[in-house]
Backbone:
């Protein structure tokens, strides 16, 4: 089985036949995807074209040297499939992978080391999704990115503002290749500069002609390995690790919320568990509390986040390496017990124990408690094509600019720092510890929502490290329960409740009011001026598309008609 089948078969005709929409972090990427659709391409073709452009114009967030998760809805077969292109650890990795000379690497040491680089999954992900759902010829999906790399793209404020002194004086400014590219003649790229990237164009030309083999073997692969083995702390990645990389094609995890069905990516992604657990908890908590006002619903949403995050942090990891109790975590009996556990504002959230509740076999203390931090160097794209097929695609290089290691026109990820360091806590192993060939847990939550007829209703997702779970669930609550439009949902203040302290974005009057309401309710809050979300969503209303693009970034949502 490779797909989750939706509960209801959609009607014969797609209600927005002949109309399509893309929402992504850069207009040039959106235009590339729309052009692929105009040429007869599917949502998957558009996703490949758009992301290939993003890897060029938004290299601080994602690219060929990273990976991601693509959730694809195919209307003809009525299935929702996840393509897991998450980076993998070297075959030689052990639980103490980030221990060097008997010492655990510090955070900055780890993210800047060769050990942080996992096998990039993006190119293999493109191919796996294209083979199943692509309509255009493979090579045509790279034309826009190649042209832009050859002719040069205009540097935007977000890229220019990312190139501060910290990066110029650090590995990005000093490493071979990246220093010359981002700081030509010793000066950071500025807004309005035109930047060509002939190496990137050459890499894409080879991939377009030869397929993933051009990336995972031969000179490009050798250059990747050489970059990983450079610097003060080298990594273990080998040519065999690259050659052995596989995209995992899995059923998406789908669950109910009111009249809707929410589908997202399975572990090692947090999306399927996180979105469905938080929304199920929210539904049960609000039913019990009778929340009717915005303040009351916000309070219940924060509690649902705190409980959902606690379980996500504790149990979700690579299911090929550890047992992840997905079905038990989403079991209505367990959700109801969590919702009625007596947890209240100000309490410290702890993971529940679905094994004890459902099977009289406790599992919580199998693992040490985990609150690993993750960096927000990520991007999200949402697509609905002319035929009602949809793609939700979140991609990343981990930290901004990844590991700062440069080769063949792109940056390599530092994704392996998503593993928990150290690998044991409270004397017990952590589920998300490093391991051979293992995929680190991800917060990426690409999500597609279906209406009661089984048709696409919403496509959503965001960058933002561990806060992604909070950002994306905010859009679900805002649209599905609070009656907000797509743009209103993306613009709302972010509230992230991972742990006992609730982070509230107070850049506007709404955020300030929410902070006061949550404080009055008894929560411990931390006010932040801005959050690093990059929400891009689409809502398919009965007669129109609504697009939402996060005002915190440079994204746009554009609709076209045949």
Residues:
């Amino acid at each position: 089985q490779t797909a989750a089948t939706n509960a209801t078969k959609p009607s014969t005709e797609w209600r927005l036949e002949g109309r399509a929409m893309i929402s992504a972090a850069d207009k040039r990427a959106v235009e590339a995807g729309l052009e692929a659709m105009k040429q007869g391409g599917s949502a998957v073709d558009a996703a490949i074209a758009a992301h290939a452009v993003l890897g060029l114009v938004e290299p601080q967030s994602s690219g060929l040297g990273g990976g991601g998760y693509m959730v694809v809805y195919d209307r003809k077969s009525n299935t929702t499939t996840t393509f897991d292109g998450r980076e993998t650890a070297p075959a030689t990795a052990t639980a103490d992978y980030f221990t060097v000379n008997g010492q655990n690497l510090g955070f900055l040491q780890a993210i800047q080391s060769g050990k942080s680089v996992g096998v990039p999954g993006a190119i293999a992900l493109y191919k796996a999704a294209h083979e199943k759902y692509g309509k255009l010829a493979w090579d045509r999906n790279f034309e826009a990115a190649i042209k832009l790399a050859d002719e040069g793209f205009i540097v935007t404020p977000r890229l220019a503002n990312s190139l501060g002194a910290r990066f110029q004086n650090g590995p990005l400014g000093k490493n071979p290749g990246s220093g010359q590219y981002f700081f030509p003649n010793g000066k950071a790229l500025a807004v309005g500069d035109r930047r060509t990237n002939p190496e990137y164009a050459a890499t894409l030309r080879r991939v377009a002609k030869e397929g993933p083999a051009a990336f995972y073997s031969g000179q490009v692969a050798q250059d990747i390995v050489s970059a990983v083995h450079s610097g003060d702390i080298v990594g273990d990645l080998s040519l065999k690790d690259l050659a052995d990389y596989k995209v995992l094609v899995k059923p998406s995890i789908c669950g109910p919320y009111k009249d809707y069905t929410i589908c997202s990516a399975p572990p090692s992604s947090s999306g399927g568990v996180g979105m469905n657990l938080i929304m199920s908890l929210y539904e049960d908590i609000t039913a019990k509390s009778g929340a009717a006002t915005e303040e009351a619903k916000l309070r219940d949403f924060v509690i649902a986040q705190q409980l959902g995050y606690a379980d996500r942090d504790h149990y979700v990891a690579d299911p090929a390496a550890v047992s992840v109790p997905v079905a038990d975590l989403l079991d209505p009996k367990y959700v109801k017990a969590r919702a009625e556990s007596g947890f209240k504002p100000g309490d410290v959230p702890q993971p529940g124990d679905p094994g004890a509740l459902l099977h009289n076999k406790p599992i919580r203390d199998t693992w040490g408690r985990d609150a690993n931090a993750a960096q927000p160097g990520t991007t999200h794209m949402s697509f609905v094509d002319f035929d009602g097929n949809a793609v939700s695609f979140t991609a990343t290089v981990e930290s901004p600019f990844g590991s700062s290691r440069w080769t063949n026109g792109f940056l390599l990820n530092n994704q392996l720092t998503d593993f928990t360091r150290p690998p044991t806590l409270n004397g017990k192993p952590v589920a998300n510890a490093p391991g051979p060939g293992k995929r680190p847990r991800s917060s990426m939550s690409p999500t597609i929502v279906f209406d009661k007829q089984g048709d696409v209703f919403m496509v959503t997702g965001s960058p933002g490290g561990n806060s992604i779970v909070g950002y994306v669930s905010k859009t679900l609550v805002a649209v599905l329960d609070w009656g907000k439009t797509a743009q209103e949902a993306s613009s709302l203040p972010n509230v992230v409740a991972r742990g006992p302290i609730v982070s509230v974005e107070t850049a506007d009057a709404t955020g300030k009011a929410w902070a006061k309401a949550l404080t009055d309710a008894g929560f411990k809050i931390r006010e932040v001026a801005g959050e690093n979300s990059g929400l891009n969503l689409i809502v398919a209303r009965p007669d129109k598309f609504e697009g939402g693009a996060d005002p915190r970034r440079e994204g746009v949502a554009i609709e076209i008609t045949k």
Observations:
- Residues 364 and 471 are 27 Å apart (CA to CA).
- The first strand starts at residue 4 and ends at 5.
- Residues 294-315 form the longest helix (22 residues).
- The mean pLDDT is 94.
